[in-house]
Amino acid sequence: MALAVSAGCAVLVLIIFLITVALGKHILEIAGVTADHSLDTVLFSSGAGFAVLQLLLGILGLVAGLTVGSVLALLVLLAIAGGRGWKSLFRLCRESAMDLSVVFKSGAARALGLCIFFFLGLEALLSTAPLTGSDAMHYHFTAPLVEIGSPEKPIFWLTHSFFIGLGHELIGLGLVLGGDKLALLLIFFGGCLTAAALFQMARKWMPLEWALAAALTFLMTPMVFWQISTAGSPDIWMGFYAVLAALAVGQADGSSARRWLILASVYAGAGASIKYTGWILPAVILLFVFWMTRSLLWAALCSGAALATGVLPLLRNFLWTGDPFFPFLSRWMEKVAVNEYALESIQADVHSHAFSTQPFHILYFLAAMTVRGADYGLGHYFGPVLLAFLPLLFFCNWRARLVWVAAALCGSMLLANALTTQMARFLLPAYPLALALAIFGAAVATREGGAYVRFGCVVTLALFGLFCLASDTLYAKDFLPVSLGLESKVAFLNRMAPDYQAATFVNTALAQRTGKVLIFFRHSYYLRVPYEDGDPSESWKMNPGALASPQTLLAFLKEQGIAWVVKSPEYPEPLAKVFEECEKEGLLVPEARTEAETLSGSSRIYNIRLKVPVVLMRVAN
Amino acid sequence: MRTFRKFGPMLFLLWLFFVNILYYAQFRELAVSRFPWLAHLWR
């Protein structure tokens, strides 16, 4: 049954993909741009189609809300708008299939293709498991789920909800049409498209076998494996748009050069719409536009194209809070009262704990994020290949424009990350570009550098391949039973989803009762009763400075319609005293209690489990 | 340039050796947490 539902969701993903390709192809035809290669055309079309789809979903979500009816109507309209694109679609599919048969002609290519198929299959299976990713259960999936059904509103009790970009609208689409399984499969599909775009970029520079090795390395890298299967984060879409933007600038030659630059700006804007840090993409692309055209008019036109596809989340935040990058500029915007505690917490949350801006430390970060990854936002999940092959960048063909664009895009993302957060995990969108360059260097060096260099490169890649095989399959072991239908969803969630037991306890205890519940645990995706997050580090509303006495706290709870409070395991430190005083004064009355098992520590791969008390309190009248 | 051609590949191999050793060594704690018997290898 589980496999049948997953197959149904996969068919839906395929239909959405075909709609975006037909729509995108129609847009490319209107723009008068033609790619060299049929697979390039499919990717450019799909990128344009997904950029339009996520933008329209964003507008629909703000104006009318995402519902089954509104989302289906939008998809039908886009399918009709695809028009002549549908005719080209079948020709493109046929040509791409013929091209792939050429790609896998040699034995080495077929062996690499089998490995790619193995990792893709494993990732596809894992992405059909119920949602258990920590950040996804906190906000990537929770915020779209809360917003479904009515026009989107600001959620001040979940500050991370302001980080929601247009990639989250695709999650919203998945949740509306097929639940978290479809939303996760769409993210997985974003990973497939990124790998295909990386392959197309790589094959422009190196023999097919090396290009396939680049795609395989990308797909088996633990960071990519995790992000496109179980994590539930839409960041991979930014990687897809970044590669497409670079490829589009690389295509900008001859009479249609300027139209390609507009298209590159559209992809860069779509990448920027995924998250705040994405705005580095249009900035770099616009520099290239100005450098190539020497025209302020074209730079302005390309800026307009990037803004049109990417500015909606910033505009939404500006209308709601006065701060397009809420909450980071809220101190200066003054439309919404600043919650200093929440702001400091969120700033700490997006910085690695070893963060420093000393010049030597920034250089150190570039190497240390690979070999001391735990200190720098899971940089070790990217593997050693980029650092190991760094000296081989010297061998890349630096006369090719595409090499420069790819290097400028990933270099600027790396520099911006080093100066602002030093969280290597945020560099996922730069990874396909960096990997293409590194493997390009290795492909040339193994030809020109002699036997030692060839031996070193092959051993490094093979060693990493074995490491990925071991770590990815070990990681997959916990998810495969539920994906294959051998384990029930509830048993799996009890075992793997953090705070799931606490959430089900609250759902059961409050099933027949009215009033919202205030919670302090982080993972609220599986709550099915009205609730608000009460942790002051996660909620802009919970300002410890303004909730200093039991009376003010009680008045605040009444004003918010909160009738219940869940203490699990303890109250958050800055509010603990005032909540405990409320308990002593009889303003919070214990109603039910249980013990719930949850995962603890920085990552669930350490498998640290804790039993924590969960107490349901009634707010006294 | 000739010196570079002569010693470059060896230096690159040395670089790869250190990067790989440093990279895989950082997983010791994780590996031991999943497979405690591995701790004997590092004694």
Please, could you describe this protein's structure?
The complex is a heterodimer of chains A (621) and B (43). With 621 residues, chain A is α/β, with parallel strands linked by helices. Chain A has two domains: 2-310 and 350-476, no CATH class; 498-619, no CATH class. Chain A is 63% helix and 6% strand. Chain A contains 27 helices and five strands. In chain A, strands 2-1-3-5-4 form a five-stranded mixed beta sheet, sandwiched between helices. In chain A, a hairpin with a 7-residue loop joins strand 4 and strand 5 (608-619). In chain A, helix 8 packs antiparallel against helix 9 (208-220). The longest helix of chain A is centred in the N-terminal third of the chain and has 37 residues, at 167-203. Chain A is globular, with a radius of gyration of 25 Å. Chain B is mostly helical. Chain B has one domain. In chain B, 72% of the residues lie in helices and 0% in strands. Chain B has two helices and no strands. The interface between A and B is medium-sized, with 26 and 17 residues.
